[in-house]
Write a structure and sequence with these properties.
This is NADH dehydrogenase [ubiquinone] 1 beta subcomplex subunit 1. This protein is mainly α. The protein is built from two helices and no strands. It is rod-shaped and about 70 Å long.
Length: about 55
Amino acid sequence: MVFGITRQYLWSVVPLFGFGVGWFLDRKETERMTMFRDKSALYGRVLKDGEKPSWP
């Protein structure tokens, strides 16, 4: 036991920490992929006047 950290504490905190890191990375990837919601953004096509994007 170092600084009050026991084996039971590690077995409960390490998985929660891993879950938190995975959640954070998933949110960042989702945020990054929002740039490509519309094919025009993905392929560089300019929308015509009055044309709506494929996503709301």
